[in-house]
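Q: what does this look like with hypoxanthine bound?
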Amino acid sequence: MPDFFTRVQIEGAAAIVRNRSRYQPTIGLVLGSGLNSLADSVENPDIIPYEQIPHWPISTVPGHAGRLILGQLEDKTVMVLQGRAHFYEGYPMSQVTLPVRVMQLLGIQTLILTNAAGGMNENFRPGDLMLIKDHLNLLGLAGENPLRGPNDDMAGPRFPGMTEAYDPELRQLAHESAAGEGFTLQEGIYAFVAGPSYETPAELRFLRLIGADAVGMSTVPSVVVARHAGMRVLGISTITNLALPDPPPGTQISHEEVLETGKMVIPHLTALIRGVLRRL
Ligand code: HPA
């Protein structure tokens, strides 16, 4: 796998999608573990398995499907990534974020991403939904920024700003959507770590000190590329577990716990996203 993709390679992937679908979506959704039901409810879908798109990264994680779905949701034309690949699976950042580059070429202007995250803010409980208002790109700060490498000036600027990376207007729509459904959303800062090991108590203490409200292993590389591409971004974390520096003795976070809590929240998360789509 090359370190970086050329525009021709990304065009090649986008061409496959264009040829295989009747739709010209402007809204993209990246759905993490568990939201298969929402992806499956896209109306009149054109479905493209990831294996059929050149260079597309395929998730190896249980709970992550691997299909691109284009169609209608709440009367909007959407492109849904059912399942995502992560850096910890071994993909280079360029490949983790290739789907966002393809979305850019297809004309996506608004990107909605969901993920599972550990809750670090003491007011958070498992099952809460948190709007991401900012992020800590720990890998990016340390050199694994997805924009490292040659810059395609047609795609975006060499030095893109990252203030208001998470669109204030979209966050407002999300709050309105949740209120309409009778629940509230937390808001907070998402710290992106590589994983796949969960954090040690010392690491969690460090993340708390630098301002993290939640910690997780995805989303941020895609957001950086989406902002480079000029997309508006909404990020929603499901707080699937508490990530506290001083857990009760004998407790370990498990992927099963993450998936289980993720499942419980599906009705709220689905209603939230549908509400946002209706309001767009
Ligand atoms: N840490 C990192 N990533 C996660 C967690 C966590 O506690 N929960 C879900 N994704």
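The mean pLDDT is 93. The beta strands are 27-31, 43-49, 67-73, 76-82, 110-119, 129-137, 186-192, 214-216, 232-242.
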